[in-house]
Design brief:
The chain has about 280 residues and is mainly beta. The chain has 2 domains: about 20-185, Beta-galactosidase, Chain A, domain 5 (Distorted Sandwich); about 195-280, no CATH class. It is about 5% helix and about 40% strand. Strands 1-20-17-18 form a 4-stranded antiparallel beta sheet, with no helix packed on it. A 4-stranded antiparallel beta sheet has the order 2-3-4-5, with no helix packed on it. A 4-stranded antiparallel beta sheet has the order 11-12-13-14. A hairpin with a 2-residue loop joins strand 11 (about 125-130) and strand 12 (about 135-140). Belongs to the aldose epimerase family.
């Protein structure tokens, strides 16, 4: 069974503006492909700060949300663009048992522990282990004394842009003992640079989803998407997710279909008879 996390918000307090200039203010780390895809990063959180692609007129468009300086990221509480771990998402009430030992973690998203808490790798400076014109690898070492999770780990994340207009993100870790590891990139996408994503079209190959309680924690039920706002087997605008106040607020796990050809998320925006499109695909499951 494969899961894919869907997170979308329309609240302006969660969404910093996309970069309006192709010239960086901070000395960000940059990689570029020969096709004109440019990505920028900060070692703080191994963060993807900008991803420029060309529109139909060959103008650069930044399709991820970000801040123009390090200060913005250090004040941010929405994990914009960060590498999150060692365990992303929530650990119920900050407690779990592993290999016969119970672990107690700080509660930073009451009543739960979120994104590995205040000592998570998303809030740390990373080493730049390797940097080429088209690729950068960040490295972070962490241990049980630091983040409260079992064992020690050396974690790498490599970002690569290629000539197929792809941004490839590879996560990996070397651990000295059995432990827990669940890494992710926490970017927010906005394909046209406007103030709203309501007109973006979403399609997800998922026939089930995980309902959550009032604290966004899974109830343990696996429910069908049929007849719910979570049915995106056919593309729909994100406005389909709006609540009574017109806000988009979804933070759920989708259970991907067993068919390997259906394990994807597709988000795209139609503009001037052209398409800006992001496709996520997994072979896991």
């Amino acid at each position: 069974m494969s899961f894919l996390k869907i997170l979308a918000h329309s609240s302006p307090t969660l969404c910093p503006s996309s970069s309006t200039s192709s010239a960086p203010i901070e000395p960000f780390i940059e990689i570029s492909s020969t096709q004109g895809v440019t990505a920028r990063f900060l070692p703080y959180g191994a963060t993807l700060t900008s991803l420029f692609v060309k529109d139909r007129d060959s103008n650069p468009v930044d399709v991820v949300l970000g801040f123009d300086d390090v200060k913005g990221y250090k004040q941010d509480t929405a994990y914009v663009g960060r590498t999150v771990g060692r365990v992303c998402n929530r650990i119920g009430h900050g407690r779990f048992t592993f290999d016969g030992k119970q672990y107690e973690l700080p509660i930073n998203n009451p009543p739960h522990h979120l994104h590995s808490g205040p000592e998570g790798i998303a809030l740390k400076e990373w080493e730049v282990a390797r940097h080429t014109p088209t690729s950068v690898t960040f490295r972070k070492r962490t241990n049980e004394e630091e983040d409260g999770l079992p064992g020690d780990a050396k974690i790498d994340v490599t970002y690569t842009v290629n000539d197929r207009n792809q941004l490839v993100i590879e996560h990996g870790a070397t651990c000295n003992a059995p432990g827990v590891l669940n890494l992710t990139n926490h970017s927010y996408w906005n394909l046209d640079g406007s103030q709203s994503v309501r007109d973006h079209l979403l399609q997800v190959g998922a026939d089930k989803y995980l309902p959550t309680d009032s604290n966004d924690y899974p109830t343990g039920e696996i429910a069908s998407v049929c007849g719910t706002k979570f049915d995106f087997n056919e593309e729909k605008p994100l406005s389909f997710l709006c609540d009574a106040d017109g806000n988009i607020d979804i933070d759920n796990d989708m259970v991907l279909c067993d068919d390997r050809q259906s394990r994807y998320l597709s988000l795209y925006y139609l503009m001037y008879f052209s398409i800006l499109w992001v496709l996520c695909y997994t072979t896991m499951g």
